[in-house]
Structures are given as structure tokens and as C-alpha cells.
Amino acid sequence: TWPARLEQRLQRPVWNGGVFGYSFAQTVLRAEQLLDRLPIDTLVVSLIPYDIKRCEMSKRFTEVPWYDVVAGELVLRNVPVPDSADPARNRQYVRQLLGYSALCDTLFWKTVPAWWVGDQSEVYVHAPGTGSVIADDKLLDRLAATCRRRGIALLLVLQGGVPEPAAWEWADGEKLLAHCREIGVQFLDLQSAFGVLAAADPSLRQKYFAG
């Protein structure tokens, strides 16, 4: 992982707090938990643009904590997160026969989600664009204020997310970086840097983002 490589380069401990598939909201919640438990002097928050979009969801393959905006303030919903396991569904003959098959799980999620898990894989509770309001104007401000209060350096790293980012993904990433500039948060824009390299060598997109 790149945090392990970073640890080698710095020759100092680097805790990897990242979790695959988190929204930016979940990332901030996890960062705040770790700040209370670990002796940290620098916090690196890494994300892809789609993590901002995920702030608009109440479910992504499973129930997640999410934020509502009420009278301009963030309100945390869905905590404690309910267990989405269905004991009756897990006793299905087909499910028991297949066992732990990532291939079959992906296939059934895509083709018959209501039969396989009883719901769509992604459930949106906010209108498009709300994710940017929650991530940029609320959560980033809160995390930056927490780090300043504790004397912790904060670095935001924007990674590229997919081989060919959609226009909204690129725009969401740019909006987040613009807000970093406004409030004085340091950032590393790997999305743009990789875009320049990939324009010169299109094969890089498949090399780095295959699968």
C-alpha cells in the first residue's frame, strides 16, 4: 500500500486508517476517532472524487452512517448503523451452494439485486450536488478546525478515481481543492497530475486503474 511506501520513505511510523469504499463523511468520522486514540502530528486524508458523491447515500452495499443538513447544520443519521444481514436470506439454498463467491455476488448484485439482497446496492437520500456541500462546506471545515485546535498538520490528497473520470467527478474534485485554498488546507492534486501524464501516454490509465 502507498502508506507503507510512505513509511519507508519517511523512516517513521505511518498508521494506515483507510477503508475501501468509504464516503468522505465516513473518512472524516474515522479520522476523528483515530485522532482521539493515536499520537498523531500529521493527518493525511486521501480520497477519490466519488467519495464526495457517496456523501449523498444512506446505503452502499450495506447501511452506512450519513449526514443530513438541517438549518445549515450537519446532523448525523443512521448511527448506530443497523445490521443489514438477513438470516432468512442467508439460508437460501443457492446462497449456501455458492458459498463465498465474489463472482456470483457481483453478478447477482448487478442483475437481480431485489432477489439477492432485497434492495438496490446504492440508496440516495440527497439530491445530486449535495455531496459537495456536505464534504466541502461542512466536513472539511470541521476537520480543519479540529486539526488546528490540536496542532496537527492536515494534508488532503485527491487521487484519480477511474480510467476516464466523468465531468462531475472532475468538477467535484476541483471544488474540493478550491475550498482547500479558501480555508488554507494543504493539498496534493494527483488527479490533475495523473491527467497530464495520461494525456501523454494513454496506456497509463489501464495500467493504474485496471479493475
Summarize the structure.
With 211 residues, the chain is of the alpha/beta class.
Describe this structure in words.
Helices cover 51% and strands 16% of the residues. The chain is of the alpha/beta class. The chain has a three-stranded parallel beta sheet with strand order 1-6-7. It is built from eleven helices and seven strands. The chain is globular and about 55 Å long. The mean pLDDT is 89. Helix 9 links the parallel strand 6 (153-158) and strand 7 (186-189). The longest helix is centred in the middle third of the chain and has 21 residues, at 130-150.
Task: Lay out the secondary structure.
Layout: H1 2-10, H2 24-37, E1 42-47, H3 50-53, E2 57-60, E3 66-70, E4 73-77, H4 87-90, H5 93-98, H6 102-111, H7 113-116, E5 122-124, H8 130-150, E6 153-158, H9 167-183, E7 186-189, H10 190-200, H11 203-209
Parallel strand pairs: 1-6, 6-7
Antiparallel strand pairs: 2-5, 3-4
- The amount of beta strand, in percent, is 15-25%
The pLDDT mean sits at 89
Structural class: alpha/beta
Distance between the termini: 16 Å
SSE run: HHEHEEEHHHHEHEHEHH
Query: What's the helix count?
Result: 11
Helix content: 40-55%
Number of strands: 7
* Regions with little confidence, pLDDT below 50 for 5+ residues: none
Strand order of the largest sheet: 1-6-7
The quaternary structure here is single chain
* Shape field: globular
* Main pleated-sheet profile: 3 strands, parallel
> Mind telling me the C-alpha Rg?
19 Å
